[in-house]
Here is the input.
Amino acid sequence: MLKLLFIGDIVGRPGRDIVNERLAGVRRQHALDFVVANGENAAAGSGITSAIAQSLLSAGVDAITLGDHVWDQRDWVTEIDQMEHVCRPANLPATCPGWDHLVIAARGFRVGIFTVLGRQYLNLKSECPFLCADRMIERLRPQTDAIIVEVHAEATSEKQALGWYLDGRVTAVLGTHTHVPTADARILPKGTAFICDVGMTGPYASVLGREVEPVIGRFLDGMPRRFPVASEDVRLSGALIEISPGMARAEKIELLTVK
Here is the structure.
């Protein structure tokens, strides 16, 4: 059995620190073959830099995915093409820089990874995630033994619909973006692991990783404020998946939380 951990949105320095401090032990404890992490909030809560990406890879992350904050750091648009272990969402326009998928390997088993952005309540220009997933699966199937799809979206309905749409065609459909771990981890009837959101890796004494008071203030009066990254109750959250190498089916999925 192969084991893959998909770590949810890493938020700011607290999220980076817990990955740096705990991931090596988690890899040993759970005998992980693969670690994938969403790093789109790793730089002060918005975006990523090449230095931060390299630090996460050095900590034991094998592949880094991104979401709607992909371009928030000014220099990243010129750095991303040099980052072979980082991929942007696949359903962004083809003219955007960066890789639209990754392939990682362990024990002779190859896993393809790509992200699609949802289109409900997200303003970034993107192709239909369902049609993009169809295209990416056809591209990756000849060169991989399993395919992991990250759906970075607001709406749980959109995430669930994509999970059912891809059931039996990919090993897992894993939701990110909303930063709140959900209780719906399961194996769909045709063998695809699914969860609406794998959770956030960062400070949970917060509102989605940001300090509480400014966020409450914004809701109360609507005035613009800075939302600094919070610092307390830091957790690493992700989905742990067991994969049957013969069938490339998911045999088990569970939410993993490390404090």
Summary: The chain has one domain: 2-258. The longest strand covers residues 234-244. Residues 2-258 form a domain with the Purple Acid Phosphatase; chain A, domain 2 fold (CATH 3.60.21.10). The two ends are 26 Å apart (CA to CA).
